[in-house]
Every structure is written in C-alpha cells, then in structure tokens.
C-alpha cells in the first residue's frame, strides 16, 4: 500500500471534549498521565497523519487499548489467547487513513491515544465501522459517542456525494448465554439510530476461529442510514 504523509493541516476534524475533566481516579495504564487525569481541549478526534503508522509507541498503545477492551468485554466469548488486533493491522489502517483516533495531545507534540474506531469503505455509499474501543477508565463519559459521531461525519463527507450513506457494524453475541454488556451495547447503538439488519453465524465467516470460541456465536449486523 502506498504511503503518503499528511501534515497537521490535514486533520479532518477536531473535537474538544470539555466534559472529561478530572474523571479519572483509578490506577492508569502505562503511558497515560498520572491520576487525576485532566482532560480538556487538548483531546482531539482525528484521522492521524499516515506517518503515525511508523510511530511504534503510538501503534502499540492503540493495540493495547483495543485488545484490552475486547478481552474485557468478549473474554467470555473467546478462550484465552484470542487477540482482536495486532500492530500490523493497526499500522495498515493508519497508513490508509482508515482509523479515527481520540488522543490527548501533549505540549511536546505527542499523541496519547485514548480510543479509536476504524472506518472502511465498502462501496460508493457504505462503510463498515469496527475496532471501536475507549480506555476503560474513560468509558461512560461520551468519548465513544463522539468517536461514533466523528466516524459518521467522516463517512458523510467522504461518501456524501453518492447518495444515501450507510454505516454498518457487527456486534458479536454468544448464543449459549446472555451477555449483559452486549445487550446494553446493542440498545445504545439502536438509540443512536442503528437497526439490526442481519443475524449471521460467526463461524460461517471465520471458521478458523472455532477452536477459540467458548460456544456458538453470532454476529448481528447493525446499520444506519446517514442521509
Ligand atoms: C463501546 C465503547 C467504545 C463505548 O465507549 P464509551 O466512551 O463508554 O461511550 P459513551 O461514554 O458514549 O457511553 C456509551 C453508553 O454506554 C453507557 N455506559 C458506559 N459505561 C457504562 C457502564 N460502566 N455501565 C453502564 N453503562 C455504561 C453510557 O451511559 C452510554 O449510554 P447512554 O448514552 O444511554 O447513557 C466502550 O464501551 C468500549 O470500549 N467497549 C469495549 C469494546 C467494544 O465492545 N466495542 C464495540 C464492539 S461492537
């Protein structure tokens, strides 16, 4: 994949999340500031410059956020050993400008990632969102909603000329037990305008993951018409 650098002026959108002030009091992950975490106008959501793919610490921090988030919420769907993503996957997404990242910008020009969402075009009018995660310490403060909204606005600006734009995402559901987090997550997506359009056996698409599943699993595809 061709690599092309974008400078800071190419940042697509900046969002200040002023509600996130001193929300943090628990122990923090390596690489994040000591508590209390003062978050304010220096948090932005952006498609980082493609050169971020070569920043090993940035990529590793994103991998850790995603894998920790999915292990936490899907640790009962997958057996130990399953990891949602890798450094290679994240570097590829950053190189192709397919990952929106919420990060705290430091005075020295660094970025400390706090959450992300992938945005992959599937055609002229459709995009799939995924790898959606926020550091555990900040959840419930609206950062996830802001990331989702950013991704939708990005799709509208990239695909809007072609007519109605649709975003879709897949939510994994175990069939052998009730999963309160997934039920809450689905309700949240539906509150934000998503509708379930398909149930599909996860193993039809990912048979190689069968040994890692704790039981029968389906994913529900949700989609939202943006215009
Ligand atoms: C999904 C995710 C990115 C949302 O991030 P977030 O920063 O918590 O998002 P928000 O703060 O906008 O909150 C989302 C909703 O969850 C609710 N919520 C968040 N944390 C909660 C908690 N601990 N208990 C109950 N509700 C909670 C919020 O109240 C909000 O619902 P509301 O708008 O009805 O009030 C985050 O939960 C996450 O990282 N999950 C793990 C990975 C994952 O499941 N990804 C999605 C796969 S499809």
How is this structure best described in words?
- This protein has 227 residues and is of the alpha+beta class.
- The chain has a domain at 8-163: Aminopeptidase (3-Layer(aba) Sandwich).
- The chain is 27% helix and 27% strand.
- It contains 5 helices and 9 strands; from the N terminus they run E-E-E-H-H-E-E-E-H-E-H-E-H-E.
- The strands form 2 sheets. It has a 7-stranded mixed sheet with strand order 3-4-5-6-7-9-8, with helices on both faces. It has a two-stranded antiparallel ribbon with strand order 1-2.
- A hairpin with a 5-residue loop joins strand 4 and strand 5 (111-121).
- The relative contact order is 0.15.
- The protein binds coenzyme A (COA).
- The site of coenzyme A (COA) has 19 residues, from helix 1, strand 6, helix 3, strand 7 and helix 4.
- Coenzyme A (COA) binds next to helix 1, strand 6, helix 3, strand 7 and helix 4.
Strand order of the largest sheet: 3-4-5-6-7-9-8
CATH top level assignment of one domain: Alpha Beta
Classified in CATH, the superfamily of one domain is: Gcn5-related N-acetyltransferase (GNAT)
What is the N-to-C order of secondary-structure elements (H for helix, E for strand)? EEEHHEEEHEHEHE
Mean model confidence by pLDDT: 84
CATH architecture classification of one domain = 3-Layer(aba) Sandwich
Q: Biggest β-sheet: count, sense, barrel?
A: 7 strands, mixed
**How widely separated are the two ends?**
31 Å
